[in-house]
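Structure in, sequence out. Go:
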């Protein structure tokens, strides 16, 4: 069974969507640990409620990024995971950490990557008067928010949208696409080779990585 460690920094609604789908037997996998860089993350409570080890590796107490990432890596490796899932983990990871988990580290980002890498995506999309926004699941590589796509989904932007209404719409889609990608991993259907994503042996393109939900 696929062993998953989920890294969080906050609310953990994506974590919850994954836990729920595993619980409902939609995904043959086990979340073996949830690790947060802050003890305030509500996702830790979600993990405890689901009887999952909930661990804080506090980023306030370490000095350098490398030192922190080594501590994090030690905690993760105790659980011998097959997949490390970043679900709102709001830290930049060092190259050494990312390379250690090559092909096993995935992230969800609230934009239609490669558009709007980085922070405050909903505000930036509204300011640019885009007509569409979305979410992307991708492999993590050392370059921030630039790894090969696994799955994306679009949402329309309405004239009266605020960052809150738009964030809510994007979140709803995230809760569909992240568990789906994890299901594919559990079935051995997704691989990264030479910085490209292959699904069922076929290289994904921007078109085939797009799931049309709306
Ligand atoms: C999600 O919207 C996720 O896409 C975003 O943080 C939120 C976490 O929500 N991630 C990033 O911005 C990473 N760059 P959650 O804690 O409720 O799952």
């Amino acid at each position: 069974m696929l062993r998953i460690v989920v890294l969080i920094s906050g609310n953990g609604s994506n974590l919850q969507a994954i836990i729920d789908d595993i619980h409902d037997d939609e995904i043959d996998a086990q979340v073996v640990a949830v690790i947060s860089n802050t003890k305030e993350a509500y996702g830790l409570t979600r993990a405890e409620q689901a009887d999952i080890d909930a661990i804080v590796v506090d980023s306030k107490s370490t000095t350098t990024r490398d030192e922190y990432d080594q501590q994090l890596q030690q905690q993760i490796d105790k659980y011998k995971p097959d997949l490390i899932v970043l679900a709102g983990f709001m830290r930049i990871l060092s190259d050494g950490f990312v390379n250690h988990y090559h092909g096993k580290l995935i992230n969800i980002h609230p934009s239609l990557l490669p558009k709007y890498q980085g922070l405050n995506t909903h505000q930036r999309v509204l300011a640019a008067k885009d007509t569409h926004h979305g979410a992307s699941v991708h492999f993590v590589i050392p370059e921030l928010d630039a790894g090969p796509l696994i799955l994306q989904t679009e949402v329309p932007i309405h004239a009266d949208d605020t960052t809150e209404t738009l964030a809510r719409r994007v979140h709803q889609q995230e809760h569909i696409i992240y568990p789906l990608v994890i299901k594919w991993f559990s079935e051995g259907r997704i691989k990264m080779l030479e910085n490209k994503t292959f699904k069922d042996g076929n290289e994904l393109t921007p078109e085939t990585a797009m799931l049309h939900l709306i």
